[in-house]
Amino acid sequence: MRDGDRALPFDDRGLSYGDGLFETVLVRDGKPVLWEEHLARLEEGCRRLELTMPKPADLNGIFANIPLFQQPLAVLKLILTRGSGGRGYRPPWPSDCRLRYRLTPFSPDEERWHRGVRIRRCSLRLGIQPRLAGIKHLNRLENVLARSEWNDDAIAEGLLCDSDGRLVEATSMNLFWQRQGRLETPRLDRCGVAGTLRQALLDRLPIQEVNAGVAVLEEAEALWLGNSVQGIWPVIALNNIDGTGGLTWALNETHRHLQNHAHRLLGYPLIQSPQPGDATP
Amino acid sequence: MRDGDRALPFDDRGLSYGDGLFETVLVRDGKPVLWEEHLARLEEGCRRLELTMPKPADLNGIFANIPLFQQPLAVLKLILTRGSGGRGYRPPWPSDCRLRYRLTPFSPDEERWHRGVRIRRCSLRLGIQPRLAGIKHLNRLENVLARSEWNDDAIAEGLLCDSDGRLVEATSMNLFWQRQGRLETPRLDRCGVAGTLRQALLDRLPIQEVNAGVAVLEEAEALWLGNSVQGIWPVIALNNIDGTGGLTWALNETHRHLQNHAHRLLGYPLIQSPQPGDATP
User: Fold this and answer.
1) What is the ipTM, given to two decimal places?
2) What family does the Swiss-Prot or TrEMBL record give for this protein (chains A, B) (predicted)?
């Protein structure tokens, strides 16, 4: 792990152009969680950007000398850039990619598992760019701007639509809902990040990828946010762009169903079904 | 100038998210060219991203100890990032911005001034994001992907439209044309980079900012690309996306008119009007 996070030269294309990819991986007892899904997304990102995928030995080597913290959980942030060189935007060929990583101790926000979260709509609309949709590239100014829209810590996340008004994701999590008994998540072929937890759930549960505007949430029996690090947060309130209350949901068995599927995948404790009166939307 | 280009830490937000801005400045005899325009764009970028604008003393200090090369021309690349910190996408407040820069000797491509250039249409469409339009931010994967579409050195640049099919720019230059005697350039309120040479020309000449599809070029009497480093290249041929020839232009007095306006601003030599037979589209 030593020197995995050493500084990057001024001319690294990751800095100059965001010309690279990243992964944020939950690490439990020194072992990466959903590692296959992370590798698959990294590989898809390399294919789309024509980057050289790191050798399996280099990636697995990260975990050979991993430092163990006082606690069993950590997050590995991994950054792969196209390295230095090229003339302006034109990439060098072949590229000499640069891999950096850093491990940080981590604790999930357990209260949000149990009580659910309040979120709001963001006014920023994601630009539509099929060439970059789904992959976890380093061009994340839209997410930064969207996350800058509120300071209230009682609001956990912000809901993002694309410039055509279709639901996409939250600023750092994917979106799931149930309507008429069916699980759905936004299709991510035009923008957004296809999370590894989302992929693992899609592979195991009958979740439909759909094109839908925010109005679909008025019919939703349950709404969740999720990613591979935090697990799944049930949403109990969705505020409008102006901050006023819009939709609310009471925590229910449905919420716990998807949540516990995800928590089994991530090794998190199962959440007990709420008793009447638990929900406080 | 010493250490202006020292390495950046792993957790710099410019690397993690492209959370920052850059400027590429022509430097003549140790003095920046169109410096006011560069400062104005940097300031507008800081306003939009809520970054702290560097102090004038820090910016002007760059030129106090500038190394002089054998030749009078150089390019200064300046990168301003939001620095380290913040929780995920959420920016730290206040941010401790990081300024880096590097000076490189430079020679413009004079042959392209005189003979003009062949360009092609790119298949990539720029995503529409008014919040980032015009400023020179570090999220430039679209430009990298567009510039990767061709390898033929005989093709100087690629023409970019947005996802609605409107003309925007070339991968690293702005676009100007004349039709029915009027100078026009694409409006850049939805995507694209508002170049400093473009701004300086808009301030001095009757150039109209317009919304137009690529069909407008069929009516154009002249087409140019330009930026503050290379000056102005007349376009003599525009290939289709499949690489086949589309539109051609003979070099003419009109071409030299805008070109010499720009070259006076940049301190480049004036270009003589072509003699009949000079143009080889």
Assistant:
1) 0.95
2) Belongs to the class-IV pyridoxal-phosphate-dependent aminotransferase family.
